[in-house]
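Weekly puzzle thread! Below is a chain. First person to post its structure in token form gets bragging rights.
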Amino acid sequence: PIYRVGDVVVIHHTQETTIASPTNGQVIVTGRVRLAWAKLYDANGDPVDTSLYTPDLDAGTVTLGDPSGLSTPLLLKDRIEDMALVNDVQINGTLTLTRALSHDFPLGTLASSALIMGDLFARVTNVYEQSTWTGAWSDDLIGSAPLASYNNTVYPITVTNHGATQERWAIIFTSSTAFRVVGEFSGQIALGDVNTDCSPLNPATGEPYFIISTAGWGSGWSTGNVLRFNTIAANKPIWIARTILQSEAASGSDHFCIEVRGDVDTP
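Winning reply:
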């Protein structure tokens, strides 16, 4: 039921290679080319620092650095995969694809459904001024607007995909020049003033949540005035529902894995 005609699926197979006695400069040959992914783990199952090995995905090899200090044996996991459109779905579980697969997939290969999210990018919305902060996180003006305003047309509030979060922000003035930076869920995260660019750092990424240019502030601000805006993060909300059909009781366990993929890595 999770596959439909026109859906994108990922056909993939992951194999494991044990390196019992790793050495510096050792080249591990996976036996297949055009890998989609390769990752090294120590004997405890913890990922090895990526600075200690170099994968060549096209060639299907991994070159080790200095393995001293690592718990051995090491385990290399590598994956081959193809993405394709589903052309037909049968009740017996047979999927027909619109193109031939480019790898020789062995027994144990899996098919995963793919949710295409399109282009994602952070942005700023709903910029407006309010005379008095009421404490209500509304996307519409409450009361009147002050005489002062921020020139968001010439000096727009900027965000990056790396730093922005899904949040509603209030810049609350405590004098004619100073203000507090408050988020609906983040709480107060910074203090600022109109004479300095406001760029509070997101501690999770080390990048600013947003940047407000000092050049955008006009005159006439007073205590209690508010600049309100929202930041939209470069992410996509999804719902996951686990359903179990009526049947006889069975033992064992079941599990699934969610992988977030991107075609372009941009800030």
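Puzzle host: Confirmed. Bonus trivia for everyone else. The two ends are 37 Å apart (CA to CA).
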